[in-house]
């Protein structure tokens, strides 16, 4: 059964321990915001499971390596997603090889990300990351080539189904094995997570989707969404009133139903 974490705006961090299965850390915010930093010190003190990202999605490039190492040594997260390069297989594999040789504190699992511009490149990237020694591998959500795997008039549907098809084909080919450990980074559309009932290797997912849409007054229907707000969670500074909380809670309840559907057979 996979674990779920929803990134939250700073003024909602206090709810994280209640709604999330684990804490998902964006390291650039540790340097930018005292409240955010103290939240993760508290999470560590309380023994919460922490996955630390490299902030590629938020910054466009992975966060500064020296600062990443500082916070890895300071917080000692359970997992660290090593720096990758958006849709660039070669640069991502070079980074992954370099980080595999970097010593991290005991107990920190290194997680690498598949980056590519086609299914063939993604297949090769996953295979090489396993050969390099990575025990857990992540798939990003928004790659352009996903929509080529599943052409659809709505590109978000194409990207959602494209990632499902990519993972399905790798599993069918036995590149991905039942014993593998996979993390899913974000989503194009939230209903995607109802399609993973037969994928026992999916261990964790993170997405701010239900939070972001609730903050914008967008409520999920029983089938999910067909569009997506483009704002990032670290860009939001909005007053949280009762109406906003209602919309967020509505989305969290519906999202949990998608996840339960996806977890049914795991």
Characterise this structure.
The chain is α/β, with parallel strands linked by helices. It has helices at residues 16-19, 27-32, 34-45, 56-59, 65-75, 89-100, 119-132, 146-149, 155-172, 209-215, 242-263, and strands at 3-5, 23-25, 50-52, 79-81, 109-114, 136-139, 182-185, 202-206. Strand 4 (79-81), helix 6 and strand 5 form a beta-alpha-beta unit. Helix 6 packs parallel to helix 7 and helix 10 (209-215) packs antiparallel against helix 11. The model has no long low-confidence stretch (mean pLDDT 94).
Layout: helices, strands, pairs:
Blueprint: E1 3-5, H1 16-19, E2 23-25, H2 27-32, H3 34-45, E3 50-52, H4 56-59, H5 65-75, E4 79-81, H6 89-100, E5 109-114, H7 119-132, E6 136-139, H8 146-149, H9 155-172, E7 182-185, E8 202-206, H10 209-215, H11 242-263
Parallel strand pairs: 1-8, 2-3, 3-4, 4-5, 5-6, 6-7, 7-8
Helix pairs in contact: 6-7, 10-11
